[in-house]
């Protein structure tokens, strides 16, 4: 009989056909072939994106090698589609490795050292003149 006329498969069943092995982009689950996760580009060993074979991932790879649909919070995607950690100064994620790539910076808890010099005087159009006899200065514009 033809592959689509079997009542029982000797190896695996894929889309109604008896085959010796599951085709590319599918994996064997018992005697059935099931589709790999959409993130896998060359094959898989199971259902999830973490089961993609090798570095064959259509989306992004974590440092552990796990294939994910998008990089998790606190990481950014490199041109090689790897998820890398943001700089520790970043509060709300980032789009690159440097502090300047932060979406929002973590507010610093350190205080700036205070200057020992007094602030520069401001300019005013009001001038003080000689004090009056009562001890209060007179103002001229």
Describe it.
The chain is mostly beta strands. It is 0% helix and 23% strand. A two-stranded antiparallel sheet has the order 1-2. It has a two-stranded antiparallel sheet with strand order 3-4. A two-stranded antiparallel ribbon has the order 5-6. Residues 109-119 and 121-132 have low confidence and may be disordered.
| DSSP strand tally | 10
The SSE order reads EEEEEEEEEE
- Main sheet: which strands, in order across? 1-2
Name the quaternary structure: single chain
User: Hey, roughly how much beta strand do the residues contain?
Assistant: 15-25%
The DSSP helix count reads 0
Give the overall form: rod-shaped
Report the helical percentage.
under 10%
Mean pLDDT: 75
> Major β-sheet, in short?
2 strands, antiparallel
Would you tell me the structural class of the helices and strands?
mainly beta
Note poorly predicted spans: 109-119, 121-132
Query: What is Rg?
Result: 35 Å
Gap between N and C termini:
112 Å
Structural topology:
Blueprint: E1 12-14, E2 17-19, E3 26-29, E4 32-35, E5 60-61, E6 67-68, E7 75-77, E8 83-85, E9 127-131, E10 137-140
Antiparallel strand pairs: 1-2, 3-4, 5-6, 7-8, 9-10
List key phrases describing it.
141 residues, two-stranded antiparallel ribbon, two-stranded antiparallel sheet, mainly beta
